[in-house]
Amino acid sequence: MHAARYNVATRNDLKRWARRDAGSFRDAHPLPDRPWPAPDITPYLDALAAAQTPAEIEAVTDHVLDAFEPALRALSDYLVAAARWQGENRDALKGSPSHLLMTAAGQALSALALADEAGLSRLRAVYDPGPDSTTSASSQPGATAPLPSAPPSAGSAPRR
Predict the structure, then answer these.
(1) Tens digit of pLDDT for each residue in 7-31?
(2) For residue 143, what is the DSSP state?
(3) How far apart are CA 120 and CA 130, in angstroms?
(4) Which of 73, 41, 61, 48 is nearest to 116 (CA)?
(5) Integer distance in angstroms from the first to the last C-alpha of the chain?
(6) The pTM is what?
(7) 44: which residues sit within 8 A by CB, 6+ positions away?
(8) In angstroms, rounded to a whole number, what is the distance separating the alpha carbons of residues 58 and 76?
(9) Which of 122, 125, 115, 85 is nearest to 102 (CA)?
(10) What is the CA radius of gyration of the chain?
């Protein structure tokens, strides 16, 4: 046992001791034996491989983010509840279990926001590019910057 030899408990030691000490609790509150099944992302990967334009890539990405959002939100909600267990989150110091759990909760949802921002940046490059520095309208009298293609028609907005 690493803990006995070096007087430092390993991750496995800590988890083993916690499982032992929570045995009667786990008997009284049975939890699923297996992790939730992983979602089948094959249709998303197939669609992504077939995508030819940024709009098509973004259509797939929006769909997959919308599909995963409920699970990530549920994970975030659980982590917040764990951080607030017995009021431990009050005046929690940086690096404390409550602080780390609250940080993890935010980062679970940050993945959605970052992916959404990446998609918006990709779409902005196509539909709303900034002025081109090599051929600006001010350097060529009478020239106008080309307009981007028309934006898509109004439809259902993403939830993010």
Answers:
(1) 788 989 999 999 999 999 999 999 8
(2) -
(3) 14
(4) 61
(5) 48
(6) 0.69
(7) 60, 63, 64, 67
(8) 25
(9) 85
(10) 25
